């Protein structure tokens, strides 16, 4: 946590006061305790000498005797101290504060420090906590030698040091009170001193804080001559220069951001450590990148081996590198990437991504279209040429055979015509200028008209045509010509490929705000492996049979494009031996 001038002055004052209080407390408490303890000891020594003199005057040996306990009780009352009579072997023979019956249970006092010293020097003293009386005690012992028997001992006096402890505690409280007073004075002093010393600093700091928050128009307007005013003038000069630089950078940033936002090409900028510095929206959309990709390593943000190889090649050679990569995911894309080093000492790389997915798709479609059309045209053209050459020689020799070859020419010419018409329809539907004329139509009227076109062919092949529409079926929103073409292609396929004694049914039902139209047959069905490709151009389940029956392979592709152009969708359900159902879903009218 940052501290201001006031806080620092306060802490300095507090530290000085705390140090002074601790030193004073340690010194004064010890000194007072020592002085008072010595005074108590001197007083107690005088009393002990007097009582020891009385013990000597008794002329009796200091041995276990009930008289000594009574003698100690009497001397304790007169001396206002605890008097203990101790024999030469350390046995307590009398104590003014211990009943006679408890004397034998007292421990031997021979090793008490004051007793040991008294035996050696004639007198001894000690200070310690007494477990008998429960507080600190001063002990003074005087050696006594009996003149008549020579059996001496020790007289010990003890007084509690409660007065000394109370005096030291009062000293602690006085020092604590003085510390609080000093602390209050320190707070007041630091506040006044900080306010006086930091006026200019606060002004400069407030202005600098505004500048740091983005307000580069703030100024200190310092006019004095002290260090704070000089600092304020320097900050004002820096703010002026920074404002100009920021304005220029902002203009350049907005220009660059506008260019990157508007580019359809993806842009990727890497630093010398292969960390991502910049990614424009076009590249984020193409590669489905996260928003937090900036700052990550390339391998963390964009995991693509082909892109890594291009970048490594450009970094190692120092020359631009180009190549195409493919991105997987929900939107597979094919991107042309151009990687070059930046013309600076930063060691960065710039990669530009051009989306060539549609271009490559169109190239593939064009190649497939040319190959498929060439393949479809080759058979009827070869048949017409062969029949024409044979017809030239058979006109005179075999008129019956000539008629057969004329029939072949007519059938293949008709097939060529259907193929050309389907190609023209598909081209018209796929063109950007095609707009279906969507109106509200009665599905029953259109379906009955279409089924009527195939009634004769169906009866010739022993097929049953049926129309199953509910009475309350709403109208559909569709283009009449497009809807007729959709139903015509679907019914035509069903009639063409269903075996005899089967049925073809056109039915419909309301599905929410859509109308579901099914063209179902009870034919042989289609294997599951073909279903996903049925709506592709020139795709046939049985190519030989389709050509034999005159199919072009474009009918279902035309159905798909027409239904989608009218805002609907198309699907197929089938299984071998269970028939086939083509389903179109269109908006209700």
Describe it for me?
This protein has 17 helices and 17 strands. The strands form four sheets. The chain has a five-stranded antiparallel β-sheet with strand order 2-1-5-4-3, sandwiched between helices. A five-stranded antiparallel β-sheet has the order 7-6-10-9-8, with helices on both faces. A five-stranded mixed β-sheet has the order 12-14-15-17-16. It folds into five domains: 5-168, Beta-Lactamase (2-Layer Sandwich); 202-256; 263-355, Beta-Lactamase (2-Layer Sandwich); 360-430, Signal transduction histidine kinase, dimerisation/phosphotransfer (DHp) domain (Helix Hairpins); 439-587, 2-Layer Sandwich (Heat Shock Protein 90), CATH 3.30.565. 23% of the residues are buried. Residues 543-550 have low confidence and may be disordered. It has helices at 5-58, 66-79, 113-121, 162-197, 199-212, 227-262, 281-287, 298-301, 305-317, 357-397, 399-430, 443-453, 455-460, 480-497, 528-531, 543-548, 555-565; strands at 82-87, 92-95, 123-130, 135-144, 153-160, 266-270, 276-279, 321-327, 333-341, 349-355, 439-441, 464-468, 476-478, 503-511, 514-521, 569-574, 580-587. The chain is α+β, with helices and mostly antiparallel strands and 589 residues long.
Sheet of most strands: 5 strands, antiparallel
Task: Work out the strand percent.
Answer: 15-25%
Question: How many distinct beta strands?
Answer: 17
Which secondary-structure class do the elements indicate? alpha+beta
- CATH level-1 class of the largest domain: Alpha Beta
- Helical content (DSSP H or I, runs of 4+): 40-55%
Strands in their spatial order, largest beta sheet = 2-1-5-4-3
The name of the CATH topology of the largest domain is Beta-Lactamase
Low-pLDDT stretches: 543-550
What sort of overall outline do the alpha carbons produce when their principal axes are compared?
Answer: elongated
Give the CATH superfamily of the largest domain.
Answer: PAS domain
Give average pLDDT, whole number. 77
CATH architecture of the largest domain: 2-Layer Sandwich
Number of domains: 5
Radius of gyration: 58 Å
The separation of the N and C termini measures 72 Å
What is the count of DSSP helices, taking H or I runs of 4+ residues?
A: 17
């Amino acid at each position: 946590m940052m501290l201001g001038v006031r806080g620092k002055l306060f802490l300095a004052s507090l530290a000085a006061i705390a140090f002074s209080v601790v030193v004073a407390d340690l010194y004064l408490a010890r000194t007072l305790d020592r002085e008072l303890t010595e005074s108590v000891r001197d007083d107690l020594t005088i009393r002990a000498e007097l009582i020891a003199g009385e013990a000597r005057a008794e002329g009796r040996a200091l041995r276990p005797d009930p008289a000594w306990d009574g003698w100690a009780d009497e001397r304790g009352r007169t001396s206002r101290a605890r008097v203990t009579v101790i024999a030469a072997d350390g046995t307590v023979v009398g104590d003014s504060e211990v009943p006679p019956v408890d004397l034998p249970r007292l421990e031997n006092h021979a090793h008490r420090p004051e007793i040991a010293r008294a035996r050696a020097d004639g007198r001894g003293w000690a200070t310690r906590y007494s477990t008998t009386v429960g507080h600190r005690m001063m002990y003074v012992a005087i050696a006594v030698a009996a003149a008549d028997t020579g059996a001496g001992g020790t007289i010990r006096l003890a007084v509690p040091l409660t007065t000394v402890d109370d005096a030291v505690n009062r000293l602690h409280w006085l020092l604590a009170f003085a510390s609080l007073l000093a602390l209050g004075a320190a707070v007041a002093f630091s506040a006044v001193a900080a306010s006086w010393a930091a006026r200019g600093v606060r002004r400069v700091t407030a202005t600098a804080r505004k500048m740091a928050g983005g307000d580069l128009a703030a100024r200190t307007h310092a006019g004095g001559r002290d260090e704070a005013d000089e600092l304020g003038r320097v900050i004002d000069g820096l703010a002026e220069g920074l404002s100009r630089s920021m304005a220029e950078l902002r203009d350049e940033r907005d220009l660059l951001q506008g260019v990157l936002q508007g580019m359809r090409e993806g842009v990727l900028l890497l630093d010398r450590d292969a960390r991502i510095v910049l990614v424009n929206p076009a590249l984020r959309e193409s590669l489905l990148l996260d928003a937090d990709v900036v700052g990550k390593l390339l391998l963390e943000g964009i995991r693509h081996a082909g892109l890594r190889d291009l970048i490594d090649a450009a970094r190692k050679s120092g020359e631009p590198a180009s190549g195409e990569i493919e991105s997987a995911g929900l939107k597979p894309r094919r991107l042309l990437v151009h990687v070059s080093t930046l013309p600076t000492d930063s060691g960065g790389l710039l990669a530009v991504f051009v989306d060539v997915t549609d271009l490559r798709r169109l190239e593939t479609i064009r190649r497939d279209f040319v190959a498929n059309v060439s393949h479809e045209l080759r058979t009827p053209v070869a048949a017409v040429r062969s029949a024409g050459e044979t017809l030239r020689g058979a006109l005179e020799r075999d008129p019956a055979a000539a008629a057969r070859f004329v029939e072949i020419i007519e059938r293949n010419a008709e097939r060529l015509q259907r193929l050309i018409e389907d190609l023209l329809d598909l081209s018209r539907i796929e063109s950007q200028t095609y707009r279906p004329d969507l109106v509200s139509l009665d599905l029953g009227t259109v379906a009955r008209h279409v089924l009527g076109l195939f009634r004769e062919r169906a009866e010739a092949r022993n097929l049953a045509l049926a129309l199953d529409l509910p009475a309350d079926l709403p109208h559909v929103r569709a283009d009449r010509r497009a809807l007729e073409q959709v139903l015509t292609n679907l019914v035509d396929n069903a009639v063409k490929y269903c075996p005899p004694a089967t049925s073809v049914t056109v039915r419909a039902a309301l599905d929410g705000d859509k109308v579901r139209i099914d063209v179902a047959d009870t034919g042989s069905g289609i294997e599951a492996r073909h279903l996903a490709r049925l709506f592709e151009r020139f795709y046939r389940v049985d190519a030989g049979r389709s050509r034999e029956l005159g199919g072009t392979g474009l009918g279902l592709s035309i159905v798909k494009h027409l239904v989608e152009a009218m805002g609907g969708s198309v699907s197929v359900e089938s299984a071998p031996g269970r028939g086939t159902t083509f389903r179109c879903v269109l908006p209700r009218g």
